[in-house]
Write a structure and sequence with these properties.
478 residues; 15 helices; alpha+beta; six-stranded mixed beta sheet; eight-stranded mixed beta sheet
C-alpha cells in the first residue's frame, strides 16, 4: 500500500468529501443554517429521496427512506433500539429484560458531512449516515459508530489523534442461490473462470475490468478515495486500499465501500462477498488496519523521535496490541466462518508476533519513513464491522500506551513457526473477551455485554445446523 506521510495535507479528511460544503459547516452551526445548506445540496443534485442509514452490530445498513423535502427539515429519525439486538440471521438476542421488548425509540441524528449520492439508484437518491442517541441526548453506548467515537475520545483526552488506513479484501463469485453448493469464481472477460492464484497479477484484475471500472465510477460519484486496487492471493480475490486519515471517516468509507462493491458486482451478474473464508483451498479475506498516532498540538507522529528512531510509545502501542488482540478476536473475527481463515499455511496470521516488514506476523511494521511509522493489524477478517474493528484495534494500542506495556521481541523469519496464539473458534474468543475487563471498559460495558449476547445467540443458532460434512462422513460411518 502506498501511504502518504502522516503530516501531508493530501491525507483524506472530511473536506474532501463530495459534500465538502456541508462538511465545512461548523459543528455548532444553528439548525437554520444547516437546513439551508442541506436544501441547497439536495436541489443542486436534484435528489428525490434520501436513504437514512445507521450501521448495526454486523455492519448492515438499517434505516428508512424518505422524500428529500422531508429530510431537509433535519428532524431526528426514530427507530427502535432493537435494531442493535439482531443477529446476522435476523433473530434477536436477550439482553435487557422487559425493556428490550418495549423497543424504545432512538433519536437518529444525520451526520450531514456524510451526505452522498447513491450512484446505482434508478432515481436521484442520496444516502446519509446517522449517529444513534438516547432520547436524553446521550450517545447510545452500543451503537458501533458511537463505540468508535468513544475510543477516539480516549485518544483526544491524552492529546493524541489516531490515524488509520484500511485494506479491504473480497472475492467475486458466480451467482449462487443454493447455500448447499460451493462458491466458485465468475467467468471473466476471457470467457474462462479463474482457476489459480495470481497474486498481484495485472491481467487477473483486467479479467474483471468492467466491475473494477464500475467500482471506480461509483466511488468517484460518492467521494470515496481509492488508493489502489490489486489482485490478491485467491482466484478472483481483489483488495481495495483506502487512503489513510481520520478513523471515523475511514470507517464510514469502508462501510460504504462494502455496499458499493456488492452493487457493482450485482450489476455485472455476479456476487462480491466479504466472508472471511468463502472458498475451500483459497486464502481468506482480511481487513488489514494500518494505525499510527500523532500529537494533536504539533501534528507530529508520536511513534518517531527527533532522530527518526522509534519511541517507547510506539513499542507500548505494539505491546497493547499483543496483549489484548486475542481477547478482541470475537470482534475482529465475529462468525464461526471467520476462524477458518486463521489457520497455518493459509496466508493469514496465526499469532500476535510482530516484525518489521514481515507479512507472516499478525502485527507487521511496514518499511516507511519515520513520519509514517505505523503498525499493521493483519488479524481482522473482511467480515468484521469496520467501525468496531478500527475501534477495538485502536483500543488495544491505547491500553498499551496508557499502561506502558512492553512488547515481546520482534520475530525474525517466519512467525508461522511460533505457537498458535489466537483463539481457535468463536466460543473461545467470546470467553477471552468476557474475561478481559480493561478492554470491555474501554469499549463500554453496555456495548460489550450486548455484543456478547448477540454472538452467543448466533453461536447457538449455528449449532442447530447440520452441515454437508456431517452428512457425508457421519451418516453411514458412525
Amino acid at each position: 500500500m502506498t501511504v502518504t506521510p502522516v503530516g501531508d495535507t493530501k491525507m483524506l479528511d472530511p473536506a474532501h468529501a463530495p459534500s465538502a460544503d456541508l462538511a465545512a459547516l461548523a459543528p455548532d452551526a444553528d439548525i437554520a443554517t444547516k437546513r439551508a445548506a442541506v436544501s441547497q445540496w439536495l436541489s443542486v443534485h436534484r435528489i428525490e429521496e434520501v436513504e437514512c442509514v445507521v450501521p448495526d452490530l454486523a455492519g448492515v445498513a438499517r434505516g428508512k427512506v424518505m422524500p428529500a423535502q422531508k429530510f431537509s427539515d433535519l428532524v431526528p429519525l426514530h427507530l427502535p433500539d432493537s435494531i442493535f439486538f439482531q443477529t446476522i440471521t435476523g433473530g434477536y438476542a436477550d439482553f435487557d429484560g422487559d425493556n428490550q421488548y418495549a423497543e424504545n425509540d432512538l433519536d437518529l441524528i444525520p451526520d450531514i458531512a456524510t451526505l452522498r449520492q447513491v450512484p446505482w439508484a434508478k432515481s436521484p437518491t442520496a444516502q446519509v449516515i446517522h449517529d444513534s442517541l438516547l432520547n436524553t441526548g446521550e450517545p447510545l453506548e452500543h451503537a458501533p459508530r458511537q463505540v468508535l467515537q468513544r475510543i477516539i475520545g480516549l485518544y483526544a483526552a491524552e492529546g493524541w489523534r489516531p490515524v488509520v488506513a484500511p485494506e479491504l479484501e473480497f472475492y467475486l463469485t458466480r451467482r449462487n442461490t443454493n447455500p448447499d453448493e460451493p462458491l466458485v469464481p465468475p467467468v471473466g472477460r476471457s470467457g474462462r473462470a479463474a482457476a489459480s492464484r495470481q497474486s498481484y497479477s495485472i491481467s487477473a484484475v483486467d479479467e474483471f475490468d468492467v466491475i473494477v471500472d464500475e467500482i471506480y465510477d461509483f466511488a468517484e460519484d460518492q467521494g470515496l478515495e481509492i488508493d489502489t486496487i490489486i489482485q490478491e492471493g485467491g482466484a478472483s480475490q481483489l483488495e481495495i486500499n483506502i487512503k489513510h486519515g481520520d478513523p471515523l471517516l475511514l470507517a464510514d468509507q469502508a462501510f460504504l465501500f462494502k455496499r458499493t462493491i456488492r452493487e457493482a458486482a450485482l450489476r455485472n451478474d455476479c456476487y462480491a462477498t466479504f466472508m472471511a473464508k468463502p472458498m475451500e483451498d483459497q486464502p481468506g479475506s482480511a481487513l488489514h488496519i494500518h494505525q499510527s498516532v500523532v500529537d494533536i498540538e504539533t501534528g507530529r507522529s508520536i511513534f518517531s523521535d527527533e532522530t527518526g528512531a522509534s519511541t517507547d510509545t510506539f513499542l507500548h502501542h505494539v505491546g497493547g496490541l499483543q496483549n489484548y488482540l486475542a481477547a478482541a478476536m470475537c470482534i475482529l473475527a465475529p462468525y464461526v466462518n471467520s476462524y477458518r481463515r486463521l489457520v497455518p499455511d493459509a496466508a493469514a496470521p496465526i499469532n500476535l508476533e510482530w516484525g518489521k516488514d514481515n507479512r507472516s506476523a499478525g502485527l507487521r511494521v511496514p518499511l516507511s519513513e519515520p513520519v509514517a511509522r505505523r503498525v499493521e493489524n493483519r488479524v481482522a477478517g473482511a467480515d468484521t464491522n469496520p467501525y468496531l474493528a478500527i475501534a477495538v484495534s485502536l483500543a488495544c494500542g491505547y491500553l498499551g500506551m496508557r499502561d506502558r506495556i512492553e512488547p515481546r521481541q520482534a520475530v525474525q523469519g517466519s512467525a508461522y513457526s511460533a505457537d498458535h496464539g489466537l483463539p481457535r473458534g468463536l466460543q473461545e474468543a467470546l470467553q477471552l473477551f468476557g474475561s478481559c475487563q480493561p478492554l470491555q471498559e474501554a469499549l463500554g460495558t453496555g456495548f460489550s455485554q450486548l455484543f456478547q449476547a448477540v454472538k452467543h445467540e448466533e453461536l447457538n443458532e449455528y449449532m442447530r445446523v447440520i452441515s454437508p460434512w456431517e452428512r457425508e462422513h457421519l451418516l453411514l460411518s458412525v
